């Protein structure tokens, strides 16, 4: 077989292996969620409710891409900064007796957040040692927050790749006793077919994670599927202060509901 034929075939075999692994992770993650799905629209049956984990006191770790890193927000107004403020003395989350450690990095994809030894196709990026799950778990978090809203899709990765990678992060953390909560995709200036992929990612993640997926895309989107002007930073990708406040509010509400994890008292 010529080398020109072998490289694509090799990649196809690798991606087929990832798809099979994803099915296994999806099955394992039937117990990842903290509650049933909330109208995901997915044809797959959502897992039944599981007992929400009681969070221990201690630090939380946030990993993800530019929105989690604070892009588009004024100083101190990103959703991560607002969350960190809530964990401070006298804040709404002060009972956690910890702080938010943010290892998010703009421009990254879910592949770069995977553990370093995770398999991947030859044309997919390697993990970043200071921004991946290995780093997050080395910080011994009481809670892991994962936020990769749209870079995978912008890079033309498939729905299954993104879902598989995020579920692998969640399950790996769970195996080490660390509960996770995941933020959904966000609207972005994209072709309609790519916007539809974001819809599919959210549906599949909600089917697997239940209440441990915080859906924000619909609230942030305008009629055209792009970021609504009220929440847009102006570059077609990032959120302004109001958009970050919406993210923070949705995440905080889910945490306070106790349907995914139960906060320390």
TrEMBL record:
Transmembrane segments: none annotated. Residues 1-21 form the signal peptide. CDD domains: SGNH_hydrolase. It comes from the Bacteria. One of its GO terms (molecular function) is hydrolase activity. InterPro entries: SGNH_hydro, SGNH_hydro_sf, Thiolase_AS. Pfam families: Lipase_GDSL_2 (PF13472). Residues 63-246 form the SGNH hydrolase-type esterase domain. SUPFAM superfamilies: SGNH hydrolase. Keywords: Hydrolase, Signal. This is SGNH/GDSL hydrolase family protein. It comes from Roseateles rivi.
């Amino acid at each position: 077989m010529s080398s020109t034929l072998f490289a694509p075939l090799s990649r196809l075999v690798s991606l087929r292996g990832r798809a099979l692994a994803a099915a296994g992770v999806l099955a394992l993650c039937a117990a990842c969620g903290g509650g049933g799905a909330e109208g995901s629209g997915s044809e797959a049956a959502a897992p039944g409710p599981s007992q929400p984990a009681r969070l221990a006191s201690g630090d939380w770790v946030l990993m993800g891409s530019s929105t989690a890193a604070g892009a588009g927000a004024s100083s101190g107004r990103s959703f991560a900064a607002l969350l960190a403020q809530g964990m401070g003395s006298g804040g709404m989350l002060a009972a956690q007796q910890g702080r938010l450690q943010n290892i998010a990095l703009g421009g990254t994809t879910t592949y770069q957040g995977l553990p370093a030894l995770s398999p991947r196709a030859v044309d997919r990026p390697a993990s970043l040692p200071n921004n991946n799950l290995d780093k997050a778990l080395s910080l011994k978090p009481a809670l892991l927050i994962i936020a990769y809203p749209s870079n995978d899709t912008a890079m033309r990765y498939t729905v299954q790749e993104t879902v598989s990678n995020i579920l692998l992060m969640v399950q790996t953390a769970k195996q080490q006793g660390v509960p996770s909560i995941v933020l959904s995709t966000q609207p972005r200036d994209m072709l309609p077919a790519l916007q539809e992929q974001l819809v599919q990612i959210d549906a599949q993640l909600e089917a697997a994670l239940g209440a441990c997926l915080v859906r924000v895309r619909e609230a942030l989107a305008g009629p055209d599927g792009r970021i609504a002007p009220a929440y847009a930073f102006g570059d077609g990708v990032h959120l302004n202060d109001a958009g970050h406040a919406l993210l923070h509010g949705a995440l905080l509400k889910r945490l306070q509901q106790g349907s995914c994890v139960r906060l320390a008292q």
